[in-house]
Specification:
Mean pLDDT: 79
Strand order of the largest sheet: 7-12-11-8-9-10
Strand content: 15-25%
Distance between the termini: 27 Å
Oligomer: single chain
Number of helices: 18
Length: 564
C-alpha cells in the first residue's frame, strides 16, 4: 500500500473526524448556553496579568477566550463575523450550530449518511428564510418611530447588562442615532464618540448633543467656562517651525541674531494676531459672544499667552476624528489658513467648559444647533463596569441602526424560532425521502433558543415549551416565552423585538457551517518540528477539561509534540 500522506502526520478518518467536530460544537455550545437572554449568567475572564472582565456578551467571550480546538475556533470565527456584520446574534449562532450537530449525531449513529442530512438542512434553510420574510413586521419611516427603536435597543441591551441600566441606555442609544442621521446619507456610527470617565456611577452615563474632547486648554490663565461661543475649527500651525530646506544663517553681531529671532517669531505672531483681530471683529459688546479656538496642529507658549490675554479658550493638537466631527456638531467649516476668515467659517455652541478629573481634563461643548455628531459619556467606578457598558452601548447603537436600515423587525422572546419550528413541521410533510429527517432536525434545533431562555430562567423547560408551541399552533400569532413566568406571551404587546438582519444572517450562516462540519470525513494535521521536519499531532480528551466545557470531558484539544 502506497500512502501519499507524510508518515508523521496525524490522520483522523470517518467516524473519528466526525466525532472531533461534533464534540467541538457541543463543547462550545455548553460554554455559551448559560449566557443567553436577560436571565443569563455572567462569565469572569481573568487575563495573565490579572485583568478582570465580567461579561455575558457572546462576541467578547469568543474573542477573549483562548480556544485551542481548530473546529471550535472555526465556529467562533464564524459567529464573530456575524457580530461584525450585524452587531448581535453571536450566542444564538453558536448554540444553533451546536444543536444541529447534536441532533445530527443521533441519526448518524443509526447509519444515515451526512449528505442526506445536509440536503435536508438546505431545504429547511430556504423555507425558514422565506418564512422570515413573511413573519417580519415592517416599520416604515423607522427613524421617527422612537418607541419601536427604544424597544429594540432595550431588548438587545437587556441581554448584556442589568435591566436597571439597560432601560436608560436604550434611550441614550436611540437619541444618539437619531441625532447623527442625515437625510439621504448612510448612517455612520463613527459620528457617535464613546468616551469614558472613571467617575461616579454607571447610571450617570449620559448623551451629550455636542462633543467632549479628552484634553483641556494648555494655559492656566485661559477661561474655564464660556457661554454663547463662536468656535473656530482650524488646522494651522501656531508654533515656531524650522524651514523645510536646509538653511544656514551667519551673523557677525548679537543685533543681527536678535533681528533673525524677531522675524521668525513675527511670522507666527502675525497669524495669532489675525485670529485675535477676527475675534474682536465678530465678538462685540452688543452680541455678547465669546470665542473658542480648536486647532489640529500645535500652539506654542507665546501664542497661548497672547490668546489667553484676549480671553480665548485655545485647544491644541485635537484628534483628527474630532476635527471631522466638530463641523458636523457645531456647524461652520474647518479652515487651513487664517487669511480671509469670515463669520460663516465659525460654529456655535451655547456652552464650552472644562472639567478636570485627577490628572485628566475634558472639554465639553454643549448646546449646539442641529448637531450631526454627539458623544456618549460613560461613567463608572471600576474598569470592568466601564468596559461592560462600552460593549453594551455599541450593541445598542447597532440594533437601532439595523432597524432604520431594514425598516423591519421580528417579534422576539423566541417567537420566530417557535413559529419557524411549527412551519417546518408542516413543510417536512411535503419533502420526500431521507432528506425529510434533515428538515425535522432543523426544526427541532430552532427550539434551542426558547428552551435555553426557559432553562436560564429556572423554569420547567419541557412543560412550558409544550405550552408555547401549542399556543402558536392554535392561534397562529407570534408567541414568545416570558422569562419571568415561563408562560406564552405576545412579544409585540410586551415590546420585545429582534433585528430582522440578525435572524437572516443566523439562518444563512449557522446551517451552512454545520453542513460543512458534518461532511468532513478526514482530518489531516501536521506542524513543523524544531529540526525543520514535520511535527506529530495527537488528539486528547480527558476529564480535566470537563469543568471548563461540561461535555463529560469530550472536548478535543490539540497538542503539538516535537519529533526529535
Amino acid at each position: 500500500m502506497v500512502t501519499v500522506v507524510n508518515s508523521k502526520a496525524d490522520v483522523l478518518k470517518a467516524s473519528q473526524a466526525l466525532a472531533v467536530n461534533l464534540n467541538a460544537a457541543k463543547g462550545l455550545q455548553e460554554v455559551m448556553r448559560t449566557n443567553l437572554g436577560p436571565r443569563g449568567t455572567l462569565k469572569m475572564l481573568v487575563g495573565g496579568a490579572g485583568q478582570i472582565k465580567i461579561t455575558k456578551d457572546g462576541v467578547v467571550l469568543l474573542s477573549e477566550m483562548q480556544i485551542q480546538h481548530p473546529t471550535a475556533s472555526m465556529i467562533a470565527r464564524a459567529a464573530t463575523a456575524q457580530d461584525e456584520m450585524t452587531g448581535d446574534g453571536t450566542t444564538s449562532s453558536v448554540m444553533f450550530i451546536g444543536e444541529l450537530m447534536k441532533l445530527a449525531e443521533q441519526c448518524l449513529a443509526e447509519g444515515l449518511h451526512p449528505r442526506l442530512i445536509a440536503e435536508g438542512f438546505d431545504l429547511a434553510r430556504e423555507d425558514a428564510i422565506k418564512f422570515l420574510d413573511e413573519f417580519k413586521v415592517p416599520v416604515p419611516n423607522a427613524l421617527n418611530d422612537r418607541e419601536k427603536l427604544v424597544c429594540v435597543a432595550r431588548t438587545s441591551l437587556r441581554t448584556k447588562i442589568a435591566p436597571s441600566l439597560a432601560d436608560p441606555m436604550a434611550e441614550v442609544a436611540v437619541d444618539a442615532v437619531r441625532c447623527i442621521k442625515r437625510v439621504d446619507q448612510p448612517l455612520d456610527l463613527n459620528m457617535v464618540e464613546v468616551l469614558h470617565m472613571k467617575n461616579k456611577l454607571t447610571t450617570d452615563t449620559r448623551l451629550i448633543k455636542g462633543l467632549v474632547l479628552d484634553h483641556g486648554a494648555r494655559h492656566p490663565d485661559m477661561p474655564k467656562r464660556l457661554e454663547n461661543c463662536y468656535i473656530l475649527t482650524c488646522n494651522v500651525s501656531l508654533e515656531y517651525e524650522k524651514s523645510e530646506v536646509n538653511a544656514g544663517f551667519f551673523y557677525s553681531s548679537a543685533e543681527q541674531r536678535d533681528r533673525l529671532a524677531e522675524s521668525e517669531r513675527r511670522f507666527t505672531d502675525e497669524k495669532v494676531k489675525k485670529i485675535i483681530d477676527f475675534k474682536n471683529k465678530v465678538c462685540t459688546e452688543e452680541n455678547k459672544k465669546s470665542f473658542v479656538l480648536i486647532n489640529q496642529k500645535g500652539i506654542d507658549p507665546p501664542s497661548l499667552e497672547m490668546l489667553a490675554r484676549a480671553g480665548i479658550i485655545a485647544l491644541r493638537r485635537a484628534k483628527r476624528r474630532n476635527m471631522e466631527r466638530l463641523p458636523l456638531a457645531v456647524g461652520g467649516s474647518a479652515v487651513n489658513s487664517v487669511e480671509e476668515l469670515v463669520e460663516e467659517d465659525l460654529g456655535h455652541a451655547d456652552l464650552v467648559y472644562e472639567q478636570a478629573l485627577e490628572d485628566d481634563k475634558f472639554t465639553f461643548i454643549e448646546g449646539v444647533k442641529n448637531p450631526f455628531s454627539c458623544t456618549v459619556m460613560i461613567q463608572g467606578s471600576t474598569e470592568h463596569s466601564i468596559a461592560q457598558m462600552k460593549d453594551a452601548i455599541k450593541d445598542g447603537l447597532r440594533a437601532v441602526q439595523n432597524t432604520i436600515e431594514d425598516e423591519a423587525l421580528v417579534p422576539g422572546a423566541g417567537a420566530f424560532e417557535v413559529a419557524a419550528h411549527v412551519r417546518l413541521e408542516e413543510f417536512k410533510k411535503t419533502v420526500e425521502g431521507k432528506a425529510r429527517l434533515g428538515v425535522e432536525l432543523f426544526g427541532k434545533a430552532l427550539l434551542t433558543v426558547p428552551k435555553t431562555l426557559l432553562e436560564n430562567s429556572g423554569m420547567d423547560m419541557q412543560e412550558k415549551l409544550i405550552k408555547v408551541v401549542a399556543e402558536r399552533e392554535s392561534k397562529g400569532t407570534p408567541v414568545g416565552v416570558s422569562v419571568a413566568t415561563g408562560d406564552p406571551i405576545d412579544p409585540t404587546i410586551e415590546g420585545i423585538w429582534d433585528n430582522y438582519i440578525v435572524k437572516k444572517q443566523m439562518l444563512g450562516l449557522a446551517p451552512v457551517l454545520a453542513q460543512q462540519l458534518l461532511l468532513v470525513d478526514e482530518v489531516i494535521r501536521a506542524g513543523k518540528s524544531a529540526q525543520g521536519g514535520l511535527g506529530r499531532m495527537i488528539w486528547a480528551s480527558g476529564p480535566g477539561l470537563a469543568s471548563a466545557f461540561g461535555e463529560n470531558g469530550q472536548y478535543w484539544r490539540l497538542q503539538v509534540l516535537d519529533v526529535g
